[in-house]
């Protein structure tokens, strides 16, 4: 078993790296992953809290395994992780599967994820698997060669567990394989990804330049204007948003959900450190604006010819 995080594991393309390679990861950017796999920077060390999350996840796999068995009569499931690689793929690869479902000659990928609730997991209420996890599981199916419908068990701290299904899609898998090949070639050629606006990339650029040598750099006036202008705007915006959220909390009192008609605007939920937190329903913005636009926009729309 090649341990995740080891030097050998870091050099291989694994399913967990595929969302970053595709540019759809919520946690790690292309820029960060490229520099890690190229050996230019070390992956961030695992904190004690993060390790505790991993330990909790492994413990949840035991319960998720039993839950999956109840929901899939006739199928057997492995006692733990299964690791494999696929020499037929044109890039170095390695897949570590949480659990392997089997029935006769059939094999299935069974992945387990933990989250505080389905919203934190990334389910916006549609019941659809977040695309980064979907890409990861499709990559697992690609490397293992197991094309039976794969399952992801989300073990939430609040609410019941949920099983998401991923169908094999040869066309999408082909695109993933091609992107992985191009990614591997980019590391060999030294063609690093472009900068982006993620926290992951910001922290990576800081890690690339840890020293201060006392020199001075001339910035382009456009970049200088933009960074100061947007920073000033951000501070003002943060104060405005905080004031508006305070008004929403005040209007809600002890209520759980705030709505406009049948459109959810926000909800109050338990906070991990105690108390409650306000979560805004950003996904409903377009619906709210379509049915309740700003008055000045509504009057402009009404004046437009049919």
Question: Could you describe the 3D structure shown?
Answer:
The chain contains 11 helices and 10 strands. It has helices at 7-11, 18-22, 30-37, 48-71, 118-121, 131-144, 170-189, 199-208, 221-252, 285-291, 295-303, and strands at residues 76-77, 82-84, 95-97, 99-103, 106-115, 150-156, 162-166, 257-260, 263-270, 276-280. The protein folds into 2 domains: 7-199, Lambda Exonuclease, Chain A (Alpha-Beta Complex); 223-303, no CATH class. The mean pLDDT is 91. Helix 3 packs parallel to helix 8 (199-208) and helix 6 packs across helix 7 (170-189).
Oligomer: single chain
Largest sheet: 5 strands, mixed
The Cα radius of gyration reads 23 Å
How confident is the prediction overall: mean pLDDT? 91
Strand residue content? 15-25%
Q: Tell me the number of helical segments per DSSP (H or I, 4 or more residues long).
A: 11
Within the CATH hierarchy, at the fold level, what is the topology of the largest domain? Lambda Exonuclease, Chain A
Write down the overall geometry: globular
* Helical/strand content category: alpha+beta
Query: SSE order, as H and E?
Result: HHHHEEEEEHHEEHHHEEEHH
Whole-number total of structural domains: 2
Determine the N-to-C terminus distance.
67 Å
Question: What CATH architecture of the largest domain do you see?
Answer: Alpha-Beta Complex
Which spans of ≥5 residues are poorly predicted at pLDDT below 50? none
What is the helical fraction, as a range of percent? 40-55%
């Amino acid at each position: 078993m090649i341990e995740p995080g080891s030097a050998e594991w870091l050099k291989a393309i694994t399913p967990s790296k595929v969302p970053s390679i595709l540019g759809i990861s919520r946690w790690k950017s292309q820029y960060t992953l490229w520099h890690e796999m190229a050996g230019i920077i070390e992956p961030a060390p695992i904190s004690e809290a993060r390790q505790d999350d991993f330990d909790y996840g492994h413990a949840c796999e035991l319960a998720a395994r039993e839950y999956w068995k109840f929901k899939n009569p006739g199928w057997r499931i492995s006692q733990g992780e299964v690791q494999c690689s696929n020499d037929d793929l044109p890039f170095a690869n390695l897949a570590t599967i949480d659990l392997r479902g089997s029935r006769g000659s059939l094999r299935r990928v069974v992945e387990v994820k933990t989250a505080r609730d389905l919203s934190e997991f990334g389910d916006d209420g549609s019941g659809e698997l977040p695309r980064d996890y979907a890409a990861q599981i499709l990559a697992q199916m690609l490397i293992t060669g197991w094309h039976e419908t794969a399952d992801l068990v989300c073990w939430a701290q609040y609410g019941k567990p949920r099983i998401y299904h991923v169908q094999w899609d040869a066309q999408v898998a082909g695109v993933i394989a091609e992107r992985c090949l191009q990614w591997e070639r980019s590391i060999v050629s030294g063609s690093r990804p472009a900068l982006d606006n993620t926290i992951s990339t910001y922290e990576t650029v800081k890690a690339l330049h840890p020293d201060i040598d006392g020199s001075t750099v001339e910035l382009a006036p456009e970049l200088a204007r933009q960074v100061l202008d947007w920073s000033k705007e951000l501070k003002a915006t943060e104060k405005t948003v905080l004031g508006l959220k305070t008004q929403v909390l005040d209007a809600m009192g002890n209520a759980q959900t705030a709505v406009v008609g049948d459109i959810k605007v926000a909800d109050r939920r338990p906070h991990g450190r105690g108390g409650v937190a306000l979560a805004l329903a950003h996904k409903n913005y377009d619906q709210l604006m379509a049915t309740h636009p700003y008055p000045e926009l509504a009057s402009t729309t009404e004046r437009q010819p049919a």
